[in-house]
Amino acid sequence: MVQPLEGVVTEMMKQWFRRGLLLPAAAICVVSVQIGAAHAALVDYSFNGTVSNISGALLSPTMNLTSSVSGAFQFDNATAGTSGPHVGNFPGAVTGLIVQIGGYIASYTVGSNTITLFDNVGFGDRWRLATDMTGGVLPSGYSAARFDLQLDHDTGGAFTGTNLQNPPSLASLTGTRWRLTFSDLTGNEVNVRGAINQLTAVPLPAAVLLFGAGLISLVGLGAGGLRNLRGAKA
User: Is the pTM of this model over 0.85?
Assistant: First the structure.
C-alpha cells in the first residue's frame, strides 16, 4: 500500500534528525507548511466603511446614517467557474463573511454566493462579491438576507483577465459600494447601503508566524550544534 505523503515526510524528518541533519529537516517543515497553505487556497480580507443610505424601516439608535461599518470575508481562490473574454463567474467561492453596521451584526449563511469579475465592459472593471446572509430580527420584522460588495474602476485597468483573483487595491478604483438587503416574512425587501474606505488582506495567523520564527531559531541552533560537533572531532 502506498504510504501517504505526510507519512513519507515524517519518516524522512526522523531519519535526518537522527543523523543530525537538522537544516534539511527544517526545510521540509517549511515546504510542508507551504503545501498545506496552497492546498487550502483561502484568502481573507477585512474592511471598514460608512453608511450613505438606509431604509426608514431599518432606522434605529444602533443603525443609522452615522453608524460605522466593519467586516471581513473569506473566499477560496481555487474555486472552479467560468472565465470568458469579459466576464468570469465563480459560484460557491465565498466561504465566510461577517459585517457589523452600528450595533447590528449579519453573517454568512450557506446558500447562494458568487464572485464575479467584469473586465473592460460598458461600465469598466468590477470585482463583485455577493452572498446570502443571516442576522437578528429587527423590531420592524426585517432581518438580513443578502450582502453585495462591488469594487469598480469605470475606465478599466483595475485588473487583467477574468480569472478568479484577489480584489484590486482601493487606490486603483473609482468607486466602492456595499449593500446589505433585509427581508421580512412576507417577502418585502429594504436595504442599507454605503461605501468602503479600507480593504486589507488579513495576514497569516499569529501561530503560523510564531512557528516560522521558532523554526528559524531551531535551524540556527542546529547549525551551531553541527559546527560544534565538527570542531570536537577535529
Answer: no
- Burial pattern 177-213, b for ≥16 Cβ within 10 A else e, equals bbebbbbbeeeeebbbebebeebeeeeeeeeeeeeee
125 is written with which cell numbers? Answer: 472593471
Per-residue confidence band for 157, with pLDDT thresholds at 50, 70 and 90: confident
